[in-house]
Amino acid sequence: MKKPAVTQLEIHPIIKNRWSPRAFRKKKVEPAKLKRIFEAARWAPSSFNEQPWRFILGIKGDSSWDKLFECMVKFNQDWAGRAPLLLLALGKKTTSKGAPNKVYQYDVGQSMAYITFQAEAEGLVVHQMGGFSREKAGELFSVPEDYVPLTMMAIGYQDNPESLDRDFQEKEKAPRSRNPVGELLFSDTFGKEARLV
User: Fold this and answer.
1) Which of 59, 108, 110, 159 has a CA between 20 and 30 Å from the CA of residue 50?
2) CATH: 3.90.230.10, 3.40.50.150, 3.40.109.10, 3.40.50.360. Which one for 23-159?
């Protein structure tokens, strides 16, 4: 199922076609595609090239997938249980010099965006999630104190929306929407629409 964004101007097809489905096929993701996804993440920009991102990958059938699934809230478990891959993104709170890294979350977010776009280019879909227990993830994976579990992601091949429970089918088929640029881009003072738009 395709749900291209209805944009005001033409944008790159990878961005236009990317969305967050919940219907995943049981098909395994090829190792070569996975390697390219994480190679893309490796090249995300970061402040002072600190690269504060780390990932824990679960492949359905292994203990990491089971532990990641256990960390999710029930709402996410109800649809993500079919995803062949689950991913936990963690961020390092300090720099290589031991100082607080004030932008580590921003940098991890950029690496997740790179994963998202490379996955789209590979014919895969992703769905990012904030609904999980960070404490449980920290415990189950023995995460060092300097790292923080930040977000999770399901990765795989898209399935038909009818493979989902009815409530999720409706969410899957709902139209996509975004705020207009005029509500996001300001000039001179916060809230004052930029002349560009």
Assistant:
1) 59
2) 3.40.109.10
